[in-house]
Amino acid sequence: MLFRNKSKYTSIEETIVFNEKLSDYNFFKGTPSDLKPTSALDIYELSSELFTDYADKQRMILLPKGKKIIATNSELPDFPNGTIIVKTFFYKNHMNHQDVKQKIIETRLLIKNNSVWNAATYRWNMQQDEAFLSKNRESVPITFIDNFGNKRSTSYQIPSSTDCATCHKQNGSLSPLGPKIRNLNIDILRNKHFINQLEYFKNQNKLEISEKNILTTPDYSDVNLDYNKRARAYFDINCAHCHNSEGNAYHVQMDLRLNIPFDNSGIAKKSAQILSRINISGELHMPKIGTTLNHDDGIQLITKYINSLNK
């Protein structure tokens, strides 16, 4: 797998061969389109979610039996070899196929083998009973109703293996992006009761944390929070996977990670470019991969934030 980084190619090591069909992994029980995980998998949730053309997402993790996630701080923990991270993208309020409960577009896998993360994408078929390994970028027309009752249409872009490397490549190798400890440090509903998600995984003997003072990423969609914190959280989940010192856009001289002090982030210097790139469509739009539609709420939040910096 190759991708371009500052006019040179860097290889991404692959240590497994992916199955051709998603069903070969036995992630789901019963009717596949119901997305009900088997008992071996755990659904996890994030404090702030990546925007992907208003798609809903189901996130799951499968750990090798008897193995734990090891965390020493609030950032990305160490996952044991054999870990599989499963992320499925779907639309609940779709208008393309009225005979199915929801329109499932794709499932992405990250599998850790021999200390190397391997990435693959599976496209779901029209019957919604199987997904097949997809190696090239594909487009899926979709019409849906967003959370505000607006009818939207787009050609959803399923990423290629190269696209996966563009975002998930950190310091020369693939890495998960979402399941940082601070992103998981929220209350979730399990067995009709709310419990801290980290405590839940510890109670399941699937997580070990040595750090006591765990941070929490703010929820950028929570309008009750300070918009400065919300804006930094938005940058962190939607932009920082490329815009950091080890990411694919390191040469742009912006580091949008939440833990980077504002004066070192480059936000003030690049504020005009940020506003321009999130508002336009086409090749220059940011985020570069994963969106074809502008995120209205996100643009409103970042615009308010950038304008406040210029007062």
Describe the structure.
- It is a single chain.
- The chain has helices spanning 161-168, 181-184, 197-203, 227-238, 262-265, 271-279, 296-309; strands at residues 2-5, 8-11, 41-43, 56-62, 69-71, 84-91, 103-113, 116-124, 131-134, 138-145, 151-158, 169-170, 173-174, 187-190, 193-196, 207-209.
- The protein has 311 residues and is of the alpha+beta class.
- The chain has two domains: 1-217, no CATH class; 218-311, no CATH class.
- It has a six-stranded antiparallel β-sheet, with helices on one face. A two-stranded antiparallel sheet has the order 1-2. A two-stranded parallel sheet has the order 5-16.
- Strand 12 and strand 13 (173-174) form a beta hairpin.
- Helix 4 (227-238) packs across helix 7 (296-309) and helix 6 (271-279) packs antiparallel against helix 7.
- The longest helix is centred in the C-terminal third of the chain and has 14 residues, at 296-309.
- This is Repeat protein (TIGR03806 family).
- It comes from Aquimarina addita.
- InterPro entries: Cyt_c-like_dom_sf.
SSE sequence, one letter per element? EEEEEEEEEEEHEEHEEHEHHHH
Helix content: 10-25%
Q: Could you give the distance between the termini?
A: 46 Å
The computed structural class is alpha+beta
Strand content: 25-35%
Organism: Aquimarina addita
Protein name: Repeat protein (TIGR03806 family)
